[in-house]
Predict the structure.
Amino acid sequence: MTRPSGLMLYALFYLAFLYLPVLFLPLFSFNDGTIVAFPIKGWTLEWYRQLGGQQTLIQALLNSLLVGFVAAIVSTSMGLFAARAYVRYRFRGKEASEGLVMLPLVIPGIIVASSMLVLFISLGLKPSLTAVILGHTFLALPFAVSIMKSAFDDFDVSLEEAALDLGSGIVETFRRVTLPIVAPGIISSFLVTFTVSFDEFVLAFFLSGNQPTLPVYIWSQIRFPAKLPNTLALGSLLLLTSVLLLVVAEYFRRRSIKSNP
Amino acid sequence: MAVFRSETSKGLALSAPATLYVGFLVAAPLVILVAYSMWTQTYVSIDKTLTLANYREAFTDPLVRHLMVRSILIAAAVTVVTVALAYPIAYFIALRARRKTLWLLLITIPFWSSYLLRVFAWKLILGFNGVMNSALLALGLTDEPLTFLLYNEFAVVLTLAHAWAPFAILPIYVSIQKIDPSLLEAANDLGSGKLEQFLRVTLPLTIPGIIAACLIIFIPTVGDYVTPSLVGGSDGKMIANLIQVQFGAANNWPLGATLSLLAMLSVGFVAIVSVISATSLGKRIR
């Protein structure tokens, strides 16, 4: 097993292919030249420094944080309840409901985006951050449901029953027994859904109107070659943020699985 | 808790918010999209007399047909390339690798980053004055920049094969993992070679995983907007680009709605046909 087989070599090449683009963005964000090509001219932090002074960028960042925060809270709450229903109870329509909430994962982005735009306009909701929040909650829900399902999967029901038998009310049982046990799952779901929203572009592009989120702002900058170094710096920061958030989420998800017997 | 209400009502009540939310946001836009597709755009207002003119236009316009066919072909190519590249990795992790969790983690980490930025990175890598060409020139492997790298179908397929990698690896990995090792031992004892073992035992048993991977990749790819816009050039444009134009610059929402519906229908049709044929093929091999 230790000798490097052909399959192992292939796996290593494949890994290099996967990491190539994610590593090049940060590498060239420190390049002291405006053309993204080898050889690298020199190292600089200038592009990062310039980001601080761009007002529209800061506003887009705030928009993204707001949208991500609300979408994560709403989708995680809905996912928490739905997952509990799927894991704990048998009921008619369960399979249909479980299948339906996974649907946002497979509908092509352009179709979700265009159809939601048409719906919201028909309901009198102009493109705005509210529209983006509604859309992102929809997209993030399947992630919340599957994470919460795995958090509830091995949850020992007898703990809840014991609390109820000892005279706790339903609310108290939920708050003092259920919630602490699934808390790591909730944190993980919150972080993942936040990241889904934070990185999402197509829906925000259609629905944000004149309140761009960060990916929409980046999209508007990609067209200008002069802005390229700044966009690279911003993109690298964003990559780093997403990866960090999801590593933390993964840590909590594993803890939630481990803590259950 | 059992005295509180029946299991059914508890289950329904708890899952209702999620179900209703997704159900509403899937069904309502669909209804309105159908309505829009039968209206017509007249300059700034919308004429709400019902007509099939948009469908007639969509079916007769060669550009629409061209883009629709190309979108499906590109999505099919992306699906085949991604799954073919991913299968050996899934096989390796499931049956050969010693540290499975580490490998799975390594494979998923790059995808915890913004899709838009990854596509953007490919644009920079493949560009005429880009990373790849400058590296090849510096190493003396080529004399002049390669022009076939960016702004064509090749770039779109490569970028998407990268973007969808874990979506192919994970379902296939799960299906290989599920294979009972005694089946492989039995095939071995009965004297089949490694290749025959793979073709007659492993591959047929992993067809569900392959189908899942294909669907997860094919469906969203047909409607992908970012990749064809950034790396596709004029040769790599897809139907999503045309739909976006209708909702944006062209300001013809009824036609955009028609195109969205037609794209959805063709995706569904191709997906169902392929699943049926793949399933029957799998049975025949066995």
Strands of chain B lie at 40-42, 45-47.
